[in-house]
């Protein structure tokens, strides 16, 4: 099938791009690997709520209709994305996983699990949470373990003594949930940095936006410092029940050795150690996207949902410039 534009991924970037192209009367199609729009959100852990309040989680032209300052649950956002596509009758080919994109002359060939498409332009909106990231020592581990992308609720965990690894928000939220059920140790490479999610009764993203901070790219210095853990509700009280541990330097079977020299054995390890994007399907010689990583980190922290269109245009620009 020939299309003017193919969009890879029906997440928020893909949908917002689609709406933008629809208004320009473009001939496009979204290719999505899952059975339903929003499944990438639905499969995340059950207690997950967005940091971004409703106003910052809405896509163009159809606001997410829940309380303005509420934080949507993962299922609310998934259902909203699905409704958004239906409302605007956006053309989406579900269960079409893109396995390769090549380019010959001015034509892109996109191979999917259900057939081949050609297009003049391709927008990569396949996200950056596709591949779980593990520390090197995980390769030598003889303890049952999962990545946060497979964690659902405390039933996902086996045994009594659990190590949660990671210094980000998922690690903190999951550890805080597990302390009610297990002996939890929490290993972080750097000291966790907390930042209140609400200041003067307002979500910090709303305040940052009012101060014009959301439009500024994040500095290299801030990037190196890593993401803050957003503090809300009883998160920090719960986390006090977890035993803090330094970075793991070695794993041998069931025994882990920490930077401090201490060694401990665990029944189960939960890695909340982040994700890597998966762009392996882009098989175009000479395509170098050096700035993808910085761009994604910046966009995750500073613009979140309201940056979709610019993000998509960025992708279009890259492909147009090939
Ligand atoms: C635990 C967690 C909590 C988060 N909380 C927040 C939050 O509170 N606020 C916030 O703004 N952001 C949050 N994020 C980040 C947010 O998920 C990303 O910013 C956002 O998903 C990126 O949108 P996207 O459209 O680029 O990609 P995604 O939402 O990842 O969408 C990509 C789409 O592409 C599809 N796809 C991937 N590969 C292929 C392929 N080969 N073929 C076909 N389809 C493909 C996927 O199935 C998916 O539907 C969170 C992320 C995680 C992991």
Task: Give a verbal description of the structure.
Helix content is 27%, strand content 25%. It has 322 residues and is α/β, with parallel strands linked by helices. It has two domains: 169 residues, 3-Layer(bba) Sandwich (FAD/NAD(P)-binding domain); 106 residues, FAD/NAD(P)-binding domain (3-Layer(bba) Sandwich). α1 packs across α10. The longest helix has 14 residues. The structure holds flavin-adenine dinucleotide. Flavin-adenine dinucleotide (FAD) binds next to α1.
CATH topology type of the largest domain: FAD/NAD(P)-binding domain
Question: Quick check: average pLDDT?
Answer: 88
Measured distance between first and last alpha carbons? 22 Å
Report the CATH architecture of the largest domain.
3-Layer(bba) Sandwich
Largest beta sheet: strand ordering: 3-2-1-6-5-4
Concise account of the structure shown:
This protein has 322 residues and is α/β, with parallel strands linked by helices. It contains ten helices and 20 strands.
């Amino acid at each position: 099938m020939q299309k003017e534009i193919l969009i890879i991924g029906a997440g928020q970037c893909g949908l917002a791009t689609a709406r933008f192209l629809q208004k320009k009367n473009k001939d496009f199609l979204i290719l999505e690997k899952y059975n339903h729009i929003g499944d990438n959100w639905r499969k995340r852990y059950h207690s997950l709520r967005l940091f971004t309040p409703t106003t910052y989680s809405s896509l163009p032209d159809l606001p997410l209709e829940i309380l303005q300052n509420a934080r949507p649950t993962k299922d609310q956002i998934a259902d909203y994305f699905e409704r958004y596509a239906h409302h605007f009758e956006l053309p989406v080919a579900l269960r079409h996983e893109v396995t390769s994109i090549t380019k010959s002359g001015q034509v892109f060939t996109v191979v999917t699990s259900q057939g081949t498409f050609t297009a003049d332009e391709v927008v990569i909106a396949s996200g950056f949470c596709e591949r779980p990231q593990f520390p090197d020592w995980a390769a030598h581990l003889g303890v049952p373990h999962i990545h946060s992308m497979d964690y659902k609720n405390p039933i996902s965990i086996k045994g009594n003594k659990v190590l949660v690894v990671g210094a980000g928000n998922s690690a903190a939220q999951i550890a805080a949930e597990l302390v009610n059920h297990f002996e939890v140790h929490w290993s972080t490479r750097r000291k966790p940095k907390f930042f209140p999610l609400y200041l003067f009764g307002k979500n910090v993203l709303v305040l940052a936006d009012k101060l014009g901070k959301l439009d500024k790219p994040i500095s290299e210095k801030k990037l190196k410092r890593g993401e803050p853990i957003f503090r809300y509700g009883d998160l920090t009280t719960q986390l006090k029940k977890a035993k803090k541990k330094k970075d793991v330097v070695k794993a041998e079977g069931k025994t882990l050795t920490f930077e401090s020299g201490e060694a401990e054995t665990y029944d189960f390890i939960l890695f909340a150690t982040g994700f890597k994007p998966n762009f392996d399907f882009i098989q175009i010689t000479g395509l170098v996207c050096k700035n993808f990583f910085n761009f994604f980190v910046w966009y995750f922290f500073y613009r979140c949902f309201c940056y979709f269109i610019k993000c998509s245009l960025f992708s279009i620009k890259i492909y147009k410039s090939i």
